[in-house]
Specification:
- The structure is a single chain.
- By secondary structure, this protein is mostly helical.
- It folds into 2 domains: about 170 residues, no CATH class; about 120 residues, no CATH class.
- Helices cover about 50% and strands about 5% of the residues.
- The chain has a 4-stranded mixed sheet with strand order 1-2-4-3, with helices on both faces.
- β3 and β4 form a beta hairpin.
- α4 packs across α5.
- The radius of gyration is 23 Å and the shape is globular.
């Protein structure tokens, strides 16, 4: 069609190229203009291979080893031994030391550690991705001080990313690939193990930081309030991880994302017809804001977490309808969900 409109000569070739660029850019939809220059944004980036340091301890003198580790990394060590592993340093000292010794010497844990080392002989790629994430966060929130990353393993305790004040912890044992044979043995369902690929490290890190920065109590909240908040989390992720695809950010396959895009109107209509938007019954609405194999009331090919997907599209619509609003200011504000919905002019 373009070639029929413009006979081929040098001037018209330029016109055709210009029109093609416009078409391509318009097809980018809500992902336009997300790239910002962070080359001059400074963060004090540093990494700690905590998993290697703990396995380097002398098991014949654990008390000294743990003491030295605690003195070197006091904040993270306190959380690691008390919460991430469940050893609980507040227990009887003998019980605690025996638990740590078991973690370091039992063959299954040793095999896990060896598998992590094979999967992550180094963390250079992840380091670059996380440093970029930190720079983007600081670009939008200059007061933030994220910069130090602790790599650890918790013995498949399902900790993929944690925050300790402004420290970020990454549980490498939760990124051994979807086919890692021992994930089912710790009760990890297939839809969760699908997300145990290294590419999700930065996504989980980003969302964990958002939840640390913008705490949200779901008690007494309506589904509408929950999906708007989750939509703000997704917006935070798309701006601070500007090169990540929508499916990566949502944890969807391309087919699942296409299903949501194709059925967005049907999902929204279902929420309204079932009187879900203003329901505060957690058991009724939480299923739409969490990962799952599919969504209740939807066809089997639907993915889980469709409420978050809808909330994200609503926030995108709000920002489009209110161009004077800065996205990074929204999570700081007290949002009236009904007013937000009205101002978003969200009509899938």
């Amino acid at each position: 069609m373009l070639l029929q409109m413009y006979p081929l000569n040098s001037r018209n070739v330029l016109k055709v190229c210009y029109l093609l660029i416009i078409v391509i850019l318009s097809g980018c939809g809500a992902r336009q203009n997300k790239a910002v220059d962070v080359s001059k944004t400074k963060v004090n980036f540093a990494t700690v291979n905590y998993h290697k340091e703990i396995y380097a301890m002398d098991t014949n003198d654990l008390e000294k080893g743990i003491g030295d580790l605690g003195a070197k990394y006091p904040d993270f060590s306190a959380v690691f031994f008390h919460e991430l592993t469940g050893f609980d340093a507040n227990k009887d000292q003998t019980v605690f030391l025996n638990s740590v010794r078991h973690f370091l010497t039992y063959k299954d844990y040793k095999n896990l550690y060896d598998t992590v080392l094979l999967k992550f002989p180094d963390t250079h790629k992840t380091d670059k991705e996380l440093e970029s994430l930190f720079k983007h966060i600081k670009y939008y929130y200059p007061e933030e001080k994220w910069g130090t990353v602790y790599y650890f393993i918790s013995g498949l305790n399902r900790w993929n990313a944690v925050t300790v004040d402004t420290l970020l912890g990454i549980g490498l044992d939760m990124y051994l690939g979807k086919d890692y044979p021992y994930y089912p043995s710790v009760g990890l369902p297939l839809y969760e193990s699908e997300l145990c690929e290294p590419e999700y490290i930065r996504v989980n890190a980003c969302k964990t930081i958002f939840r640390n920065k913008f705490e949200f109590d779901i008690e007494g909240k309506t589904l509408l309030e929950m999906i708007i908040h989750n939509g703000l989390e997704m917006t935070f992720a798309e701006y601070t991880l500007p090169d990540a695809s929508d499916e990566l950010l949502m944890g969807y396959t391309k087919a699942q994302l296409k299903w949501c895009n194709d059925n967005q109107r049907m999902i929204w209509s279902y929420f309204k017809k079932q009187n879900l938007l203003f329901s505060t019954q957690l058991q009724q609405v939480m299923r739409y804001t969490l990962d799952g194999p599919s969504s209740t009331g939807m066809p089997p090919e639907s993915p889980g977490n469709i409420g978050t997907y809808i909330g994200w599209q609503m926030v995108r619509s709000y920002l489009k309808e209110n161009p004077d609003v800065k996205w990074h200011e929204l999570p700081k504000q007290r949002i009236d969900s009904e007013e937000f919905l009205r101002k978003s002019n969200y009509k899938p």
